[in-house]
Amino acid sequence: MTTLLEEVFAKVAKLPAEEQDAIARWLLEELASEQQWESLLAGSQEKLASLADQALADHRQGRTLPLNPEAL
Questions:
Q1: pTM of the prediction?
Q2: Mean per-residue pLDDT for 41-47?
Q3: CB 20 within 8 A of CB 12
Q4: 47 Cβ partners below 8 Å, 6+ apart?
């Protein structure tokens, strides 16, 4: 465990039990969400590569326009 994480846990340990539980639930949800995103992205590399190839082909064929931030 890193020093920073140990510092955080030491500070959280001083909070009331309800707040500790709320932080623990939030952290567990964040970790689960991160794992879900990693899983989704890992399974989509082929599709993302295909979309990138299509975007480059469109650009080479003159079917794209420069981005105009003012028009967003």
A1: 0.57
A2: 86
A3: yes
A4: none
For 63, the 3-state DSSP assignment is: coil
pLDDT band at 41 (very low <50, low <70, confident <90, very high): confident
- Residue 57 · residue 63 · CB < 8 Å: no
* C-alpha–C-alpha distance, residues 36 and 28, integer Å: 12
Share of the chain above pLDDT 90, in %: 81
Length of the chain in terms of residues written = 72
Say if residues 28 and 21 touch (Cβ distance below 8 Å). Answer: no
Distance CA 59, CA 46 (A): 20
